Amino acid sequence: MPPLSSGTLWSAQIRAIQSLERSLAGGDRRALIQMATGSGKTFTAVNFIYRLVKYAGAKRVLFLVDRGNLGEQTLGEFQQFVSPANNYKFTEEFIVQHLRSSTLDTSARVVISTIQRLYSMLKGEQNPAPDLDDLSIDAAESLFKAPLPIEYNAAYPIETFDVIVTDECHRSIYNLWRQVLEYFDATLIGLTATPSNATRSAAATSCRSRAKASSESARRVIVGAGVWARSPRSLGWNRPSCTPKSFTRETLARAADQAGTGL
Questions:
Q1: Which DSSP category does 134 fall into?
Q2: According to the model, what pLDDT value does residue 3 have?
Q3: What is the pLDDT of residues 209-254, one digit of tens each?
Q4: Which residues contact 240 (CB under 8 A, 6 or more apart)?
Q5: What's the pLDDT tens digit per position in 164-176?
Q6: Which of 64, 73, 108, 183 makes the best surface tag, with the fewest CB within 10 Å?
């Protein structure tokens, strides 16, 4: 993979991106990035998503937000991002969809959505509540006391997304909405400013329901920017489709070898 251009990135953002890429190249499929409030988590995410899409073969990335207005802000970050490689804006080079309906743009390389809307789509709901995206995941947890059941929906195969990025990743994601995340066979990257022990544990052991996690604890792969990751090598996969996707290891390593820079 080409070297990361520092540009306007802060040192903590650079460390987070470089460490995440090393983690993915090593086969990790779960990572939690901890950065302080105001340190530019979304901007950091847009940078590493761009590199995964452009250089590492990620076909489609899902960016999950808490509420619809945060989706608008996230879309703005993608629209403002200028590639250091060619000076194109992200949205000029790749299609970015902000989901406001139940129709997924199959040509989009990045999809921004609330997890509430994604759940509604997987359930096959044709007419979801108009204020669906305005209900925060914390508020939803007070309405639903048990995890929400999900069944396979042929309209959204498990390989729909290669990467899922969860903004403001915290306990509600892994308590009430965990099945939604685990529905897809995707690398999961969480962003948070204040991770709890439960969040760290969930990021370390979260895997598809068809997999069995060993008792190996999470590996902390960076100090400072705070990235935790889980290696799939300690997981017992029951289905071939659950093996690590090629972009997380082979493509990244090949890109690094071609560039002669390593990761």
A1: G
A2: 94
A3: 222 222 222 333 332 345 554 433 332 222 223 333 444 445 555 5
A4: none
A5: 999 876 555 666 7
A6: 73
The span from the CA of 120 to the CA of 123, in Å, is: 5
Label residues 68-78 b or e (16+ Cβ within 10 Å = b): bebbeebbebb
DSSP-derived 3-state class of residue 25: helix
Task: Give pLDDT < 50 ranges for the chain.
Answer: 198-199, 204-225, 229-249, 256, 258-263
DSSP class of residue 216?
P
Write out the DSSP string of 71-129.
HHHHHHHHHH-B-TTTS-BHHHHS-EEE--SS---TT-SEEEEEHHHHHHHHTT-SS--
And the tokens for 163?
């990467």
Q: Is 8 within a domain?
A: no
Q: How far apart are CA 117 and CA 107, in angstroms?
A: 19
Q: In this structure, which amino acid lies at residue 172?
A: S
CATH code of 228's domain: 3.40.50.300
Q: How many alpha carbons fall within 13 Å on the CB side of residue 141?
A: 13
Specify if 6 maps to a domain. Answer: no
Do the beta carbons of residue 170 and residue 197 sit within 8 Å? no
Burial 85-120 (b: 16+ CB within 10 A, else e): eeeeebeebbebbbbeebebeeebbbbbbbbbbbbb
Parallel/antiparallel/unpaired status of strands 30-34 and 163-166:
unpaired
Q: How many CB atoms lie within 10 A of CB 169?
A: 26
Domains of the chain: total: 1
Establish if 89 belongs to a structural domain. yes
Domain containing 123 equals: 13-257
The DSSP H or E segment spanning 46 is helix 41-55
**Cα torsion 25, 105, 182, 37: sign:** positive
Closest CA to 95 of 61, 52, 65, 57: 61
Note whether residue 65 is domain-resident: yes
- Residue entry with tokens 């090949």: 254
